[in-house]
Amino acid sequence: MSKAAKIPAEALREVEITDMVAEGKCLVRHNNMVIFVTGVAPGDVVDLRITKSKKSFLEAVPTHFHKYSDLRVEPFCQHFGVCGGCKWQHIGYDTQLKYKQQQVEDTLQRIGKVEIPTVLPIQHSPALQYYRNKLEYTFSFMGWLTAEQIQDETQEYDRRVLGFHTPSRFDKIIDIEHCWLQPEPSNGIRLAIREYAREHMLRFGNLVKQTGLLRNLIIRTANTGDLMVILQCYRQHQAIEPLLDYVYEKFPQITSLNYVLNDKGNETFHDLEVVCYKGEPYIHEEMEGLRFRVGPKSFYQTNSEGAYGLYKIARDFAGLTGNELVYDLYTGAGTIANFVARQARHVVGVEYVEQAVADARINSGINNITNTEFHAGDMKDVLSAEFIAEHGRPDVVITDPPRAGMHPDVVQRLLEMRAPRIVYVSCNPATQARDLELLDEAYKVTRVQPVDMFPHTHHVENVVLLELR
What we know:
Layout: E1 12-16, E2 19-20, E3 26-30, E4 33-37, E5 45-53, E6 57-67, H1 93-112, E7 134-140, H2 147-151, E8 161-165, E9 173-175, H3 186-199, E10 214-221, E11 227-233, H4 240-250, E12 256-261, E13 274-279, E14 283-287, E15 290-294, H5 304-318, E16 325-329, H6 335-340, E17 346-351, H7 354-366, E18 372-376, H8 379-382, H9 385-391, E19 396-399, H10 408-417, E20 421-426, H11 429-439, E21 443-451, E22 461-468
Helix pairs in contact: 1-11
């Protein structure tokens, strides 16, 4: 048994939290051991209860605060600490930015082990509240009660809820009264649907047995004023249409009202039919005079204004003059490809999801962009020597992979391709750093720009420019 495993659960008293590290956890060192702590801030002095013991580290939660950190601020949400979102509300925004910047620098140096220039100051989010354009809520017939609610014997709580998952629990949903992430009428729509369903005795879903009627609610708001609502139900039922009629009448600003029948083991519906019940089967976002069509299955950056700043950085790093052939890898709905097309000779986008490629082509069409083309398929298979021979060796590669980063075969293709410049946009600096280490044999990192797209969370985007050695 390791030394760490022998520590009594209540052994740590009056410990000062010293630092904040990846994934929003804080750090303290005790007797040469690393302890990761949640729910605290650097400068807090706390008693700790060990919750997990590993060979090289411990995990703990605070049981008592002897002193609160000067970095703390008052959380603005009544659900803070329970729903699992916005875990940094108790820390001032300037401090959040400082630690996100530090996270990028530390990660690139520790994992990437490559030479990097001075990291540019992190770009902050244009909005700190109501910045998301998409939220997903879950119905549950047996909502999660907080400790305060359990102790409150004066009130009986309706367990039929519509809200968010509690941390690390797929089957526990906490009811949400007001969420500060998405602008109105998001909260109004959610509460109206919840109350209608309660009053009309509609069956809220059982997440374990996957029974009931109501499963999931998705609300998408756009900077054009367009508004999409998607209701997921486990099965067809005569009560669905009256509910949708009620919502459409109560919220006339809805421009796209849809429903999905989903009895699968998960809530994804990319392989299911989405029925457009009222309005158009899409909404539009705008960016720098471009219109982007967003359907129920479309991916679009969830912070619209933050995405605009992110894409401007990527375009600036690309150094386009109008003569370049650009490859846009993991192009999604072609947002970046179409965004940079006016400054490039030609843009070739590649994406795994066929529906996203269809969206990308539509987005080029509605903006009269004629110098783009899009291809669907697994990146490591599509990006072959034959593909490059057919379409040409790019002058610039822009890559914006998912959190897992790029497949090693894709990295190898980039090394073989030897484009003069690669712009790497990442939502996960850890996997980005891993890929940078692989690219280091042929490329030098010349610019690094962190971007905050998700205030009050530990998530940070990062844009890196690599130039051929």
